[in-house]
Amino acid sequence: MSTAAVAKLLGVSRRTLMRWVNQQDLQLEKNEQGHYQFTQEDIEQLKQIQQKTESIQSTSTRKGSVQRMPAIDAHTLNTIEGKLEELDRKVRNKADDVVSYQLLQHRREMDELVSTIQKLENRITELETNQKRDVKKDPRLVYDQNKAPKNRRKSFISSLFGV
Asked: Given 19, 25, 39, 45, which residue has the most CB atoms within 10 angstroms?
């Protein structure tokens, strides 16, 4: 029989069949095209391999396979629901605590900013008051307060009139 026919007979893919052949190191005959030819004895040996594989798979669970959950009685279900509700309550309380802490932090930061702004306003008022006091003392313009040396003034006037 051909590989495809034996795979169909056993209900497995050709790849699985060839993996079994390679793992068991079965000596199979090949036809003139180089394809394996299975005898009845080879098929019986592969059926035994298939039974062993199925028995191993039935006793062990594969990763990601779905398993049937055992029946749960009402008391156990109520206990689980109670624990879930308790955990949910704790999570909500924790979230509330975190939000409250963050609000307090923001409030503290806002108070610090308001204090800094108040200090800056006081300093600006103080500087404006000092500036007004200085202007009242000497009514001259700022440019006139510092007398330029005569030679600079003379050169400035000369440049204006071209003298």
From this structure: 45
Nearest to 12 by CA among 49, 63, 56, 62: 49
**pTM higher than 0.85, yes or no?**
no
Phi, psi of 34, deg, nearest 5: 90, 10
CB atoms within 10 A of CB 53: 13
Per-residue pLDDT of the chain (163 residues; tens, 9 = 90+): 888 888 888 888 889 888 888 888 778 888 888 888 888 888 888 888 888 887 776 665 666 666 666 778 888 889 999 999 999 999 999 999 999 999 999 999 999 999 999 999 999 999 988 888 876 665 555 555 555 555 566 666 667 766 5
40 and 28 in contact (C-beta within 8 Å)? no
Residue spans per domain, the chain: 3-56, 78-152
3.40.50.1110, 3.40.630.10, 1.10.1660.10, 1.20.1530.10: CATH of 3-56? 1.10.1660.10
